[in-house]
Design a protein that fits this description.
The complex is a heterodimer of chains A (315) and B (367).
Chain A: H1 14-24, H2 26-44, H3 62-65, H4 72-78, H5 81-101, H6 103-114, H7 118-129, H8 136-146, H9 153-160, H10 172-200, H11 204-213, H12 217-228, H13 230-242, H14 249-255, H15 261-264, H16 267-277, H17 281-310
Helix pairs in contact in A: 1-2, 4-17, 5-10, 5-16, 6-10, 7-10, 8-14, 13-17, 16-17
Chain B: E1 4-13, E2 16-26, E3 31-35, H1 42-50, E4 57-62, E5 65-66, E6 77-80, H2 92-102, H3 107-120, H4 136-148, E7 154-158, H5 166-183, E8 186-191, H6 194-200, E9 203-208, E10 211-216, H7 218-223, H8 228-233, E11 240-249, E12 252-257, E13 260-263, E14 277-282, E15 287-290, E16 298-299, E17 301-307, E18 311-318, E19 321-328, H9 333-336, E20 341-344, E21 350-353
Parallel strand pairs in B: 3-8, 3-9, 6-7, 7-8
Antiparallel strand pairs in B: 1-2, 1-4, 4-5, 9-10, 11-12, 11-14, 12-13, 14-21, 15-20, 16-20, 17-18, 18-19
Helix pairs in contact in B: 2-3, 2-4
Classes of the chains: A mainly alpha (315), B alpha+beta (367).
């Protein structure tokens, strides 16, 4: 008995199906195109230049014409005290940022969610969102002015209690708290929007059901709101871990000075000084590549751990 | 007495009044169903009983105590929601135990209660699963488990079966009925599905536009609706409405429609309605199909016959108005195609005033 040709029609190849899909949904692909072009131009094309991390790069010979030197720059990098110090500072500041900065937006969102007076809620939200929209230069100016030893508000208040003026921004031990605090002040409010959106997605009947069961607002926050937004929290944490070496470069450049390099210099400022100010493009590219590889490994690890233990992952 | 009493219950949102003074007395262990179309105020009434909506006016009494200003948790009620309201991050056991944990019951009490409820609802094999890993019916059972585990004085159900498919709805309906018989807890159930109302209720309360239209046993409401709204709402297919004119006949008043007339001497008040327009309410189930040639049959223009298996729905028109007949198919299949009329016993017709829509007084169709 021969097979019915209608029921055994061969499946079209994957490529044919993709082309068919593109023809059918061309409007969607057209909308996707600008992003794809942006990715290619700004993220993929520059990857060609990464090879200078393995070359003795000369601007006159160009990327292709410069001779290969293997891992020489990486050898130099890991024997460079300044780089190792910058790496240490980056990791310490990132961990501090994670420890103190990551929970603040979640806390803010939870607090906003509990505010019943809409006018107060909107005003408070506007106030905490505002610093995000102010240029880093102005923020740095505010910080420098606030911590100024002569007329800064912080030293003025300390003066009321008989404490002598402190040159905060010239003291290495004060740089990290000031930097982390500034980052939280500038971004926590805006970052809380993501969590507020996640909270808005929690079904109101969960709360109503809990109310009938006798849960207090505090219990509802712990037993419903936080678990319900845990997926968002984990995804944000993975993204944050992926960016752990991407310390706010502009803010450090604006706030640090040679006196505070000991605690303030991070990988990105090191790359900036070596690459752009010192003209060692190949050496800076090696440091940048190392940075990217560490970030990639971190995000993969965080994603795998999250996938295994919480069923939540980026991919 | 774990009864629930509503006296003049009113709910307003700003200037908009949505519940207009409801009076209802639910007896202990009674299963009362609030039924009505969307927006009729049934869910709002239930939510006022649960304490999820503030009562604008009137008194709500549960177990002999006025609870208008009592927090939901202190009313000793449990509610089953339309969308189950299960906590997605908790497994079945923890979902069921949630209310007990909140009330700081001991671990032993929680474990034994969860086990017992799991057995009652057939959830024991699923206690470790999360809601996302359950079927719709299982989720609904978990939602009921959460309600019964606290052994409340009153169960409140807010359209709990409306998210289920037809087959599951029928199964769960029977389970709810069984559960009520077993636990004997006073229950108030909201639905827009009149079949659910008819099958579950000890007493049905039909609501419309924030008011109670009628309350009574399912059969009483089915047979003796007080107005055309209730008549049209209960029953599937709904009651046929035929416009008629009351005239004086040889043996008392008759209702005339077109060339047809029905002797309705069993309704004394019809005598007072002579010369007025009325609406005849005829249940699709109460008529007997016949061929045109049959003596005394009222002709219907049949345009569709739906065969449902043991019975058939015959759709047609009478005096230009839609008319449906429900009939058994067994032994009648051969005559179904030839049907073009029906007969009905006059005592099974409900007569309504055409202007007010209210049933004429003095007519009772007995069960």
């Amino acid at each position: 008995m021969s097979a019915d040709p209608k029921t055994h029609r061969p499946q079209p190849s994957r490529m044919v199906r993709i082309v068919d899909h593109m023809k059918r949904e061309w409007q969607l692909y057209a909308m996707l195109l600008p992003t794809v072009i942006w990715l290619l131009v700004f993220l993929y094309k520059p990857m060609y230049g990464l090879q200078i991390a393995f070359k003795d790069y000369s601007v006159f010979r160009g990327v292709a014409g410069s001779p290969w030197v293997g891992f020489e720059h990486f050898d130099t990098l890991f024997n460079n005290d300044q780089f190792l110090r910058a790496l240490k500072n980056t990791i310490i500041m990132s961990l501090y940022g994670l420890l103190f900065g990551f929970p603040v937006p979640i806390f803010l969102a939870l607090m906003f969610n509990e505010v019943l007076n809409q006018t107060f809620k909107k005003s408070a939200q506007t106030i905490v969102y505002l610093p995000h929209f102010i240029s880093s230069v102005i923020i740095a100016g505010i910080v420098i002015t606030s911590f100024s030893p002569s007329a800064g508000i912080v030293n003025t208040i300390l003066g009321w209690f008989g404490v002598d003026s402190i040159y905060f921004l010239t003291k290495p031990e004060w740089f990290r708290p000031i930097f982390i605090g500034t980052g939280i002040w500038q971004e926590a409010g805006f970052q809380s929007i993501v969590y507020l959106a996640a909270i808005a997605g929690v079904s109101p009947t969960l709360y109503e059901s809990a109310v009938v069961d006798g849960a207090s607002r505090w219990q509802m926050m712990w037993k419903i709101t936080i678990p319900s937004i845990m997926t968002t929290i984990i995804i944000m944490l993975i993204i944050r871990i992926g960016n752990i070496l991407e310390i706010s470069f502009e803010m450090i450049i604006l706030l640090y000075q040679p006196a505070t390099y000991e605690t303030a210099d991070v990988v990105n400022t090191f790359i900036y000084r070596q690459g752009l100010q010192g003209g060692q493009y190949d050496f800076a590219a090696a440091a940048g590549l190392f940075n990217a590889i560490v970030a990639f490994v971190l995000v993969m690890t965080a994603n795998t751990i999250s996938k295994r233990y919480s069923r939540t992952s980026l991919w | 007495m774990s009864g629930v009493n509503l006296q003049g219950l009113v709910k307003t949102y700003g200037a908009l009044q949505v519940v207009h003074g409801i009076d209802l007395d639910v007896q202990e262990q009674e299963f009362v169903v609030l039924v009505g179309p969307s927006g009729c105020g049934k869910s709002t009434t239930l939510r006022m009983i649960a304490g999820l909506e503030e009562i604008t006016d009137g008194d709500l009494t549960i177990d002999g105590r006025i609870v208008n200003r009592v927090a939901p948790k202190d009313r000793d009620v449990a509610m089953v929601f339309q969308n189950y309201a299960l906590y997605p991050h908790l497994n079945v056991a923890d979902n069921i135990a949630f209310g007990l944990k909140i009330r700081k019951e001991s671990k032993e009490v929680i474990a034994s209660s969860v086990q017992e409820v799991g057995e009652i609802l057939g959830l024991t094999p699923y206690l470790d699963r999360r809601p996302a890993d359950l079927s719709g019916g299982q989720r609904q059972r978990v939602a009921m488990g959460r309600a019964i585990v606290r052994r409340p004085k009153v169960f409140l159900f807010d359209e709990p079966l409306s998210n289920l498919d037809a087959k599951l709805r029928t199964q769960m309906r029977a389970e709810i009925k069984r559960l009520h018989k077993r636990l004997g807890v006073t229950s108030i159930y909201v639905t827009h599905d009149q079949v659910e109302a008819m099958t579950l209720a000890d007493r049905i309360v039909v609501m419309n536009d924030g008011r109670i239209e009628q309350m009574g046993t399912p059969m009483d409401l089915f047979l003796n609706p007080v107005n055309t709204f209730v008549a049209g709402f209960l029953g599937s297919p709904p009651m046929n409405m035929v416009s008629a004119h009351v005239e004086t006949g040889d043996n008392g008043p008759v209702a005339k429609f077109g060339e047809n007339q029905l002797q309705l001497a069993q309704i004394p008040s019809l005598q007072n309605a002579v010369g007025t327009e009325v609406t005849l309410g005829i249940r699709p189930e109460f008529v007997t199909v016949s061929r045109t040639a049959d003596d005394g049959a009222i002709p219907v223009d049949v345009d569709l016959i739906e065969t449902l298996g043991s019975e058939a729905l015959i759709h047609g028109h009478l005096q230009g108005e839609p008319f449906v007949i429900r009939t058994e198919t067994l032994g009648q299949m051969d005559i179904l195609d030839g049907i073009s009329g029906f007969k009905i016993a006059p005592e099974l017709i409900r007569v309504f005033d055409a202007k007010t829509g209210l049933a004429l007084p003095g007519q009772v169709i007995k069960q």
